Amino acid sequence: DDFSLENIPFGAGVLPDSSSACCVTRINTYIISLNALADAGLLDDLTTHAGLSVRSAFTAQSTLNAFMALGRPAWRSVRTRIQELFTIGGRRDIHDDESLQSKVMHDASQVKMTLPCTIGDYTDFYCSKEHATNVGVMFRGGPPEKALMENWKTMPVGYHGRASSVVVSGTPVVHPSGQLRPDPSADPTHGPCRTVDFELEMAVFVGTGNDMGTSIGVDEAEDKIFGMTLMNDWSARDVQKYEYVPLGPFGAKNWATTISPWIVTLDALAPFRTNAPVQDLAPVLPYLTEKDRHTFDIDLEVAIEPASGEGASVVCRSNYKHLYWTAKQMLAHHTVTGCNMRPGDLFASGTISGSDASSFGSMLELSWQGTRPLDLGNGVTRTFVQDGDNVVMTGCAQGDGFRVGFGTCEGHVMPAASGGDSTSPQSSPYPRRE
User: Fold this and answer.
1) Which residue, 243, 225, 236, 430, is CA-closest to 347?
2) Which of 78, 95, 162, 340 is most buried (CB neighbours < 10 A)?
3) How big is the chain by its Cα radius of gyration, in Å?
4) Phi first, then psi: what are they for 135, rounded to 5°?
5) Residue 421: what pLDDT?
6) Which residues are catalytic?
7) DSSP structure class, residue 221
């Protein structure tokens, strides 16, 4: 089970017989209302290091932003309290009160998950050496050892994304359109993207941030990170190919980004710490040099479920631990200029690829620019994502007798209207999975 007591992820959702969201966690098949726990006084004795009440972060709150702002000691105390309340043989507050159970515990299938917080800003990084190498070989030619740009070797390269189009898992996305120039000798045209792609990523939510004009040190960065989630940062490859020089991707990346509904804390991931890759491409500058250089062993998987009904086919198996630059380094680099981060801000890893072809985290790489079709079975092939496809990402860290998972991150691609004008997304024909 992805949602054992060792996990205790945080999210937001609309409970049965309610019209607004509340803050929640999940244990096995139950969604636990944190608002109800707070209203029942079960968090009253928990305070932050500054003496602020934890209860106020949940009372009448529809997102996690207020809780995120309280800091890591508060996040830990709430997670521990939830474990105490729901451990067999633990506290009896809920076990002995059926009326309270009905307010606190809800069947997960009856809860509609929403975005876990209000996302102020979103930044996408480019931290996989294997992915950056593959893209460099495809787009610039030359041998793999010459594929990386010099600046990539000394910093986690990133760009600012679009927070307004970040959506929760299960939300349909509409096929994008833009300017295309498949023939460099001809004029550009406008029309639907011909190479829609997924990007397997993991994203980080900022908890406590920093003031403008200050920075977050690389070795204090983990205390600022609220947790991690799965991400599909959808891409319109042909739109990007024409537009990205000189300022980078724009329309190719702003049309949709899907995240899983659950934020898993770094405390839950602590048992899965592992050594991060050796950084030997260039000297690491002091502000990015970590005293404790580690990452997390998180298995990742991508499946494509065609509309024709053949079922889901796994096209990629990768792992978060492949990333050359860590989340701590991303946050330190993001703020080294004095950029202020706020509770609920989001930054992502970029596509996560490994060295083996089966671990490439995008169709661009898996099909090698469309030259190697992937066999999905029953005569169905793909070079890029097609209308009607449902892309499903999953991730989990496997422990000894337990698992810490992120749920699913999935999105169904709806067709653009004729002429390239997008219609509003309708309901997905695929069942919502949490």
Assistant:
1) 225
2) 78
3) 22
4) -65, -40
5) 47
6) 131
7) G
pLDDT beyond 70 at 420 = no
Q: Are 8 and 2 in contact (CB under 8 A)?
A: no
pTM (predicted TM-score): 0.95
268 close to 9: Cβ distance less than 8 angstroms: yes
Residues 399, 271: contact at Cβ < 8 Å?
yes
> Which residue's structure tokens are 């950084």?
279
The residue whose two tokens read 């995120």 is: 68
Kindly tell me if the per-residue pLDDT of 298 is higher than 90: yes
Closest C-alpha among 395, 318, 327 to residue 352: 318
Nearest alpha carbon to residue 120 among 173, 153, 161, 75: 161
CA–CA dist 139, 131 (Å, integer): 12
pLDDT at 419 over 70: no
The C-alpha torsion from 80 through 86 and 88 to 90, rounded to 10°, is 50
Measured from the Cβ of residue 386, the count of other Cβ atoms closer than 10 Å reads 16
Q: How confident is the model at residue 2 (pLDDT cuts 50, 70, 90)?
A: very high
Q: Is the dihedral of CA 157, 163, 165, 168 positive or negative?
A: positive
For residue 423, the 8-state DSSP code is: P
Average pLDDT over residues 135-162: 94
pLDDT digits (tens, 9 = 90+) for 104-142: 999 999 999 999 999 999 999 999 999 999 999 998 888
Give mean pLDDT, residues 79-98. 91
User: Do 168 and 203 touch, CB atoms closer than 8 A?
Assistant: no
DSSP string, 270-327: GGGEEEPPP--SSPPPGGG--SS-EEE--EEEEEEE-TTS---EEEEEEEGGG-SS-H
Tokens read off for 243? 């537009």
